[in-house]
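Two proteins, back to back. First:
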Amino acid sequence: MSGFRNAMPSSAPRKAYALNQSPLFRLRGKGRFEDVIGVKWESVTDLLAAESFRVWKGPKDREIQAPIHWMAAVHKVIADLLARIEVPDYVFSQKGRSYADNARQHLGNHPVIKTDINKFYPSVTRAMVFRMFVRDFECAADVADRLADICCYRQLHLPTGSPLSGRVAFFAARGLFEDIAKLAVASGCKLTIYVDDIALSGPNATKRLLGEVRMLIARHGLKSKGKKSATFAAGAPKSVTGAVIVG
């Protein structure tokens, strides 16, 4: 790990800020990259060439790709920086909130619809991550190129077991989530998102609205799971992110 140094001391206060206040925003120049990420510019090649991920089969034969050693330390730096950026209130996959908090938003005598994005992290490609750093974070192209390589498993897609994947996936697919949020407002529904789990509740949470949400997901180049797309009647028990709502 000769090319790595801690960019963000653990004692630094964790204060939330807008995206344009992040050290990652408009990150340009090799020196600035080294200061923020903690990796020497010329050492990125070594970082990517190393055996940087542990891969194994998880529940339901799902492949888990977790960064290890030097890559794990770098991913933690980036994850910590991203975690400090403010996200919309409908995002419940963030520190201080839980699956139960997410489900609790949909309490009440009204219908609920839900769906989720199929293989969300593997569907977020390196091209999407690069585009996110250029478009949303306004990084220089060469810096965005380095960051996309570091964030992605074998420079292909987001890893399924990294601490940075959740927040990178959100920003990479932010256009989709913003479109769903607009649809929720127009329909008078409450929206929550927990990583890839999407739930809406309210009088107009109908099968038709669920179809519109799924079409939005497809329009953004992603897929929703048919088996996990469901509608719940107002008086029925409702399962949202693993928690059952009754009443």
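And the second protein:
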Amino acid sequence: MEGLCMLLKRLAYPCRYSDMIARFGRPVPELCMITNRVMDFIYDAHGHRITQWNDTILNPRLLEQYATVITEKGAALDNCFGFVDGTVRPISKPGDMQRIVYNGHKRVHALKFQSVAIPNGLIANMFGPVEGRRHDAGMLHDSGLLHNLEAYAYSATLLTP
């Protein structure tokens, strides 16, 4: 429980390990090891929930239903089922390799995440984090999202005999 509290405090922006010493009564190296261990545990146990294609909300029948809803709202395309959304999350300035995570557009050191939001407001797929200087188009391609979309894509003309 203490390790989870440490991780949550560390993820609250801005927060350095040295800011946590008074609260948790442990030296910086120990705080770092504990938070990393808890983060690894959480990722190992639940990472699949954000890194794999979610078949329960992204199957061909539901994708067609999402596309129909979006089309009925006046979309120009009849096979659009969701909307790509990216976010830049600021991080503390790293000691090494600062250029990799520096986002010139937002002018902060950051990690980027990209997701697909579907009409019911859920995040259907998430990719990230990647370094802050990376362009969104490259993220979309490298995430495998385009490949997954092509596998599930349908065309209204192909469905009608």
